[in-house]
Design brief:
mainly beta, single chain, globular, 172 residues, 5% helix, 1 helix, 10 strands
Length: 172
């Protein structure tokens, strides 16, 4: 790993994203994911000393931790659309058309895996247990000639080791 400062530490990230639903044995490639973020949520509790005039903060502790993943997919496949529709598995007819029953699931639980495949800078991977819920809205008509997308949020769940995902940093 190059020590800072070094221009080889700059990164233009690209990734491949996979999901393995709870109970399944293999990961499914989610295709072209155009945005993927992990945001830690930390709740703190401050303590203040109350003597000598003004209150003075003398201690801060973390009382709650968590993380949220947000990602956007632009491949409108039955598998990806099922995340937004909260649908059970799609049924496919003889014409290869799929039918999804909306709001027939309450969430999708499983493991998200992100593998860095960028050409510039270090590659960063992340894997964590999540509960996926839809976010935003799905467009049936767009008047701005933009590509359609499926937006998803996932609450990261603590795994058996009480961790919120595992990060891996790889130099090229």
């Amino acid at each position: 790993m190059p020590a800072s400062p070094s221009i080889t530490n700059y990164q233009i990230p690209t990734e491949k994203v996979y999901f393995r639903r709870t109970g399944e044995s293999t990961f499914t490639d989610l295709g072209n994911v155009i945005n993927f973020t992990v945001e830690n949520t930390i709740e703190k509790k401050d303590h203040f000393r109350l003597y000598g005039g003004a209150r003075t903060k003398d201690k801060t502790i973390i009382v709650q931790t968590g993380a949220t993943v947000k990602f956007t997919m632009d491949e409108i496949t039955p598998y990806n659309l099922a995340f937004f529709a909260l649908s059970t598995a799609a049924t496919t007819d003889t014409d290869d058309d799929s039918e999804l029953v909306g709001l027939s699931e309450t969430s999708f639980t499983g493991t998200l895996r992100v593998i860095g495949d960028n050409d510039v800078g270090p590659q960063v991977d992340w894997e964590g247990d999540v509960s996926i819920i839809p976010a935003g809205s799905f467009s049936f008509i767009k008047n701005d000639d933009e590509w359609n997308v499926i937006e998803v949020e996932a609450e990261v769940q603590a795994d058996a080791n009480n961790t919120f995902g595992v990060w891996n940093h790889r130099d090229q």
